[in-house]
Amino acid sequence: MKKMYKKLSVLLLILSMLAVSMLTACGNSTELSDKVKLGTLNGPTGMGLIDLQDNENIRMDTYQAPDELVQKLISGDVDVACLPSNMGAVLNAKTDGDVVVLTTVVNGVLWLLENEGDGELSAQSMEELKGKTIFASGKGGTPEYVLQALLENAGLKMGEDVKVEWLDAHADVAQKLMATEGAFALLPEPFASTVLSKNEKVEVAVDINDAWNQMTGQELPMGILIAKKEFAESRADDADTLLTLVEASVEDVKGASEEVIGKIIDVGFMDNAVLCEDTIPRLSLTCLSSEENRETLTAFYEILYKCNPAAVGGKMPEESLFY
Questions:
Q1: If you placed Cys at 187, which of 191, 211, 245, 288 could pair as Cys (CB 3.0 to 4.6 Å)?
Q2: What is the pLDDT of residue 173?
Q3: Domain span at residue 177?
């Protein structure tokens, strides 16, 4: 009996050592060798990374506009940037392949809402939107091309079968929706949750992420981590470590603990704890593996390319874009 216990103890020790070795080989260390300059946008694309601000080797700066953050990434002031998903392909073309997409951190955050007034939802699918008018913001960007692709998949043509009234900002869209009974609006988070909390007559007509999934078999990627190619190549271990930290942060944020919500409010991503708690489950936070990321973004870029080649920088990106 003693010999059996001894053999079992030795076996467990060997298995433990192998497990540690495997973790190290996969790059799952949580120690960065040097400072990483990370830029995020104020909103859903940055919320999942909130725990990274606690790491002394990560300088996490927040920006209000994608264009500003793009310039910081190109100039080298930022090593890694969290940006809208189409920017991976756009920057790949703009910099002649000088960027690498590390992962997708946010999936579908778009919702089609309806102010049903005193009635009921008049549409609960893309096909039922024929003859309707949709308020939206983001013309020339991902929201427009996603909406166009989904309508075409439903046999509808944007601008003919379905009218879209483009407004300057998501806040304008939210106000227009709440003030107009019978209106539809395409809104991202956290604007969608804000409207749903303020106006009981507003309901979700179509979950855009779900509609995209039904059309493509993939999630709808909305926010990605893009690194300078030099960083990804010369600091590959740190890139792997950063992904490990990102995954841990995403999982923590999904739990919507008081501590996490407090951090999000302190940074200024949101200003209401109750609304923040309601919004987090709708953010579709993620950290995709290399293969999943490649499949999801390739499907996404192919559809955007068909809608408008300029949406992906004029050409489909090569495999080298993906980390």
A1: 191
A2: 97
A3: 110-216
For residue 233, the model assigns a pLDDT of 95
- Residue 101's DSSP bridge partners are 226, 322
Q: Which two tokens stand for residue 80?
A: 């890694």
- Going by C-alpha positions, the residue among 212, 224, 186 that lies closest to residue 84 is 224
Q: What is the pLDDT, as a whole number, of residue 235?
A: 96
Report the distance separating Cα 201 and Cα 50, nearest Å. Answer: 33
Residues 232 and 296 grouped into a single domain: yes
Torsion of CA 86, 87, 93, 97, to 10 degrees: -120
pLDDT, one tens digit per residue, over 253-272 is 999 999 999 999 999 999 99
pTM across the whole model = 0.86
Residue 192 has pLDDT above 60, yes or no: yes
CA–CA gap between residue 93 and residue 309 (Å, rounded)? 11
On average, the pLDDT of the chain sits at 90
In total, how many domains does the chain have?
A: 2
**Maximum Cα–Cα distance for the chain, whole Å?**
81
What average pLDDT score do residues 60-85 get? Answer: 95
- Do both 102 and 225 map to the same domain? yes
